[in-house]
Amino acid sequence: MIKQSTLQPAHAVYREVVAAGDYYMRAMKQGQTIRILDLEGNQAADTLFYNEHDTSERYSAIDTIREQGNVYLSAGSVLLSNEGNPMLEIVADTCGRHDTLGGACATESNTVRYALEKKCMHACRDSWLLAVAENEQFGMSKRDITHNINFFMNVPVTPEGGLTFADGISDSGKYVELKARMDVIVLISNCPQLNNPCNAYNPTPIEVLVWD
Ligand SMILES: [Zn+2]
Predict the structure, then answer these.
(1) What is the CA(123)–ligand 1 centre distance, in A?
(2) What predicted TM-score, i.e. pTM, was given to this entire model?
(3) Buried b (16+ CB within 10 A) or exposed e, 161-191
(4) Which residue from 8, 27, 147, 159 lies 20 to 30 Å from 207 (Cα-Cα)?
(5) How many Å lie between the centroid of ligand 1 and the Cα of residue 177?
(6) 192 C-alpha to center of ligand 1: Å?
(7) How far is the CA of 126 from the centre of ligand 1 (A)?
(8) Distance, CA 167 to ligand 1 centroid (Å)?
């Protein structure tokens, strides 16, 4: 569902441009709103959420899909934790569809999907592992990396139940906005993928904005 935001970028309390292949890892408080902005279009933002005070509670694709009865995420979707608690709600969305089935790219999946020589190419899982290693204050490790959301990524489910990585439907300036229902850690890998059309074979920067 397309829903515009009324928040003004000039009033944001935090802004950061995240290059393709880089990560964003920061806590946000209950009641704050985060916007992920697709600056140049057709990008994928592979995102994980954790309860800031107990990171064993984290975003659960399974619980979220079951409770909303829809495999796609958009405005109105409430993101649930593995304990069934609302973590964030998508309160604005000008893209209209976000995937939570396709998972993130990894060097291993790159070899299976594309070619053995893709093994050394940078992947989202590497960015997440670097993020948890460089942010020891959150006390997380490799074992905390679980299933994620791919904001802006178009992964249609076929009538037979298959998944296809389709050309993106996002465009320059499209965004998704989420309001936190608890204190959360946001971990985004701005996808460096070069092998599939989700980002038009051309990874580009995103911008993250936070409002009180
Ligand atoms: Zn990726």
Answers:
(1) 5
(2) 0.94
(3) eeeebeebebeeebbbbbbbbbbbbbbbbbb
(4) 147
(5) 20
(6) 6
(7) 9
(8) 14
Decide if 19 contacts 191 (C-beta within 8 A).
Answer: no
State in Å: Cα 10 to ligand 1 middle: 30
Residue 98: closest CA among 80, 118, 72: 72
Spatial separation of the C-alpha atoms in residues 58 and 62, rounded to whole Å: 12
CB 181 within 8 A of CB 89: yes
Residues flanking ion ligand 1, Cβ below 5 Å = 105, 124, 191, 193
Residue 138 is classified by DSSP as G
Phi/psi at 205 (5° precision): -75, 155
Q: Name the amino acid, one letter, at 125.
A: R
Pairing label, strands 184-190, 45-51: antiparallel
Q: Among 140, 186, 180, which Cα is nearest to 45's?
A: 186
pLDDT tens sequence across 2-49 = 999 999 999 999 999 999 999 999 999 999 999 999 999 988 999 999
> For 61, which DSSP code?
H
How high is the pLDDT of residue 198?
66
